[in-house]
Design goal:
Aminopeptidase, seven-stranded mixed β-sheet, 7 strands, globular
Amino acid sequence: MTLADGADVEIRPLERSDREALASAVARLSERSRYLRFGSAKPRLSERELDTLTELDRHSSDALLATDPATRHVVGVGRFAALVDEDGVVDVAATVGDRWQGRGLGTALLARLIERARDEGHLALHATVLAENTASIAMLRRAGFASRSGTGALRGFELAVTPPAPSTALVARRQDP
């Protein structure tokens, strides 16, 4: 896809084989970006975190990877994962490399994740963001997320989605005896 500033980026489903590229992308983030994304000073992803991020079933958990076509580096990732205590609700998050921030990539990843969650029949998306992460909060609000909770360091946001209507062909088949 082409971003608003004319830069090209490739967005595709994250695969298990992207494990090392994902780890490298997080390591390339500035300390500030890692802090804003993870809420702590995180120099790298653990093996367990990499397992969680790359073992996807494409329904209750899914992720998209954005790469720079010129360098083949991962420049962004977005994912959702079902919340075990809230049926039909997924947690959503996006991370964009420092040089790619403010160019619309996070918004593009979020829009595609919303569409994927809707296509999979999820009813709502939740996001938890550090209160000081004003850029992410603005992105969530532009996407239609409403404040859900939070008065301390964290803010919660929610977006209700309506699952797609069944196609007329599917409805016709259901009515056939």
